[in-house]
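Researcher: Let's try something more involved. This one mixes different molecule types, so please make sure each is placed in the same coordinate frame as the others.
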Amino acid sequence: MFGNRDRLENYDPQRFRTKIRAFTWLVVCVFFLLVARTWYLQIARGDTLRQRSENNRIRIQEIKPLRGLIVDTRGDILVDNQPSFDISVIPEIAKDVVDVGLRLANLCDWGGDGISFEKASFKSGKPFIPVKVARNIGRDKLAAVETNSLNLPGVVVDVVPVREYIYGDVMAHILGYVGEISTSELERSTFAAYRADDIIGKYGIEKYLDGALKGKSGGEQVEVDAAGRRLNVLGRIDPVSGYNVVLNIDSDLQKVCWDAFQEKAGTAIVMDPRSGAVMAMVSKPSFDPNLFNRGISGEAWKELTTNPLCPLQNRAISGQYPPGSTYKLIVAAAALEEGLITEDTEIFCNGTYQMGDRTFRCWKKGGHGTVNLHRAIVESCDVYFYHLGEMIGVDRLAEYAEKFGFGSRTGISLPGEKEGLVPSREWKRKRFGESWQKGETTSLAIGQGFVLVTPLQLLRAYCALANGGELYRPRLIRRIETTDGLTIGEFFPEAGGTIPVSKKNADILRYGLWGVVNEPHGTGWALKRGEKDVCGKTGTSQVISLREDEDEIADDDIPYRFRDHALFVCFAPYKDPVMAVAVVVEHGGHGGSTAAPIARRIVDGYFGLERERGT
Amino acid sequence: MKIDRRLLINFDWVFLGVVLLISVIGILNIYSASHNLYVRGEPLYVKQIYWLLVGLALMVVTFSVDYHTIMRHAYLIYLVSIVLLFLVSLYGTMTHGSQRWLVLWGFSFQPSELMKLALIFILARYFSDHTQEGYHAGSILILLAIVGVPVYMIARQPDLGTAMFLVLLFGSIVIFAGIGRKIIVWGIASGMVLAPLFWFVLKDYQKERILTFLNPERDPLGTGYHIIQSIIAVGSGSLWGKGFMRGTQTQLKFLPEQQTDFAFSVFAEEWGFAGVVVLMFIFLALLLWSLKITQSARDLPGTLLAFGVTMFMFWGICINIGMVLGIFPVVGIPLPFFSYGGSSMVVLMMGAGLLMNVSMRRFILQP
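Model: All components are placed in one shared frame. Result:
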């Protein structure tokens, strides 16, 4: 049994001396190791780990700025910010998120897709960080949520500003729309300053001036605990609202243009020939930019992008059309300036023109008889211009066309502008590897064939004739200012060159355009007004060329997409013009019968507004 | 009972002082770690004070009764501990997926803590009874059974940390008691062969912990979270610390288990390297003093008991601080006298009582 006295008395206390010493060393070594490790963590890596502990507890929470407003030339608000309401749930306060989700759904009569209550999204390990469950709820649902807030623990309403496009589709192509930045955009270096959930301009002015409109984010430095609960605000930098943008657009005139179009597809632009200010710009069909506010639904997006009429396209700057007879102005200018003709040069029109083995027709069966330049413009005699085209030649014509601003962008402050096309011998060789055919110049002389212009280019060229030769850059933006109304940027008329037309020749051409509207047999008779008389030119651009043996057929018998485009460009009044209009009606038929009445309504509207406002 | 005056003269005030010093620092630390923590009943630091008082009472009992008397009941204590472990496996309460706690008369405690002490008793007793006779195959089997049964039962709770702790305690006592060098070599060799097989017995979460220990960043929000947050807490303390009750990792709850297993992180964050060095010196003093008691013990059972308790404290300090500093895997071993926890505190106080028992009787032969 235990406790044998002999053994105890025989115990040698030195027996374990060596082992105890060994264990003492073991203890000391282990302690040294532990202290060394602590030294490594606290002294060698102390600063790094202190930083990491700060990162743990301090969150930077972005405060989004308000986006700048866009107003028209008279201060009428075009784009505003409106509150939209999102619903979030704080899991820690809600306790049973599924139950709260069910109550929310019952309360607001939400369908299965209106609210996203996936349990997984609540398992971030940070129960105090709100999880967004519904976006952009309507005011009725907001009211229901707020009155029942006692039964909805942990449910919070976030107010998110969204864009409100007051004029909807009327201004869609000018203003554009906004949306959340996409991942592909984020990868590009131009978007380096943007963050993942930023709202950016995707189209129109919203895109072009995004830098000015977006403002500067503020931030809050918040102390949080491990559960994500906000404890203290350590610092705050207020966001800076975006700049407001004042456009040259006149919203009333814009409405006039919109209404003038009715249901046709096409575009109308109103410009001040004295400065290049764009006062209205309509493109039809259009879309509602408010659809994009909180992310467009896949269905709506598909409808927009698959619509054969391309409602997203701004026809004023990206639509490219053969200019038709409106191009005769440039041909006439070239012929006059090159001294190939005078205003008295007469040519006999019998209704056809022979070029090699091809026969070209005048639009008027039987011909115009003997016409001088003025009559040729007024009655839009094709044969007269076939002759001019042959005299000038393609390359010389291209030179003039380019000096009238065709073939290059006008530089308007909108994304997506097209260049149009001014054909030349060299262009054709490069493009097709073929040499230029003489008959092609003949087509070109009446604005058919390869030549393509944008409605804005066409309008600018006519404005130059109206104002005495200055080719102004079309100006959509008038001013950029701070929210306090302090101007920080102003856009002044910017001349992009002068057209090569002498004053004498310009007078001849202007008189011709006056005749188109105001003389008997003029193709623009629809615009004849008592006062503020209009000068203009019709154009009908063929989508497909009729075969020579084919007689004209009634418009209604041609499928829509093969019908001619109707064009009309004009300015008024004859003396010292203050406004110019270009109208293109896609597949509208004849310029004189389809585009001219629309232009008439716009001109009437313009001077009506002027009279109303007493300016 | 007549009290020998020499007992009072030889009373080990230094040892008691060191133990109390660590306990008080520990309580202050628990206060800092848990003052803004909501718990049912008394705040944790108050509970810890209660446990310290209970521990002190039992300590008085443990050093008052001659350790030879206690040794006489070593087998009984061991058996009681085994029975309690068995009861845990039947009636124990589950926490964090393992069954470690037994609730008796409203108190919950961990029999596995008591087992540590019981193992020291039974080994001291065994080696005192079987000296010098050489350890034949039979005695080795007996020893393996003595440690194997509780290790198996605790590993099944599952509490791998405590099971490994018992193995370490067993190993150090066996080596100390003087088992043949041959057997030690064989033991280590077979251990190394068996270790890979052991991998297949492990539960998934245990494998996960070991893998995460090897590379904490492989699961930063899961198992690795403890290690990463602990290292950040310790490191961010730098030289002078963030100040009492001002450790952000602790106060903002980034640090898990901060009043129990990771109490040392709290201390290191708030007191910095300077504080850690001081605390480590106190712990070192505790161990060196315990080894001194071991050396001065009057007889073999006293030596073995003192050494066993010393190793009990040593391995606790070594594993817990090593874990906090990221050089050991995360296991549930508390820091002696420092971590919050009743069972650990009471059992360690009894261990301390034993050391004092041996210390104050070093000049007295058994009557």
